[in-house]
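User: My collaborator sent over this chain with a note saying "see what the structure looks like." That's all I know about it. Can you take a look?
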Amino acid sequence: MSVAAWVDDEPVTADEVERRLRRLRDRDRTGALPVDGSREGRQLRRWVTQVAVVERLCVAEMAARGPAAAGISAASSAATSVGGPTRAEVAALGSIVAAAWANEPAVGRVASTVTADVVLSPAQAERAGRLAAGPDGRPVWSDDELLASARIEAFSRWLATATHTRVRLGEGYEHPGDSTQPDHVHQH
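Assistant: Without extra context I'll predict from the sequence alone. Here is the result:
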């Protein structure tokens, strides 16, 4: 068995990644996806692997937290949208996490669970309101939007830490943005 990644020492197989890629390619009626085997195609495989890893990580997290966490996250008043992240949240989260969130309900549940305690103090809300004031001096963002932003940031920090400590990637399945992998093309 070829392994693309390990999440908590449980494998995400290369076959699973290939099945996901085939589903994407089967839906690609316009031919917009890169050619399999090209540099861009290998980067797409890495991206799909990352989506699978985020999904698996969140499923494992919900399982580890047990039934009580499912109740907490369902009842949570987290400002992140239940059906998936908003456009602004997608921009903050990135396409990998946004895709995982859209595919796997556990991602949104984990986001709600790990950010349930996030609050904005009145001083933070006031400062953020001043920094984000419109030309007329009134706040551009509501307190709910500021809280949603703080929760997305907290979830992103949780996810980065969890990924760093609980995930190992196989060769050829590195993060697409990893500058040490051979198909990395982003340069400054």
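A starting point for your reply to your collaborator: Residues 18 and 45 are 8 Å apart (CA to CA).
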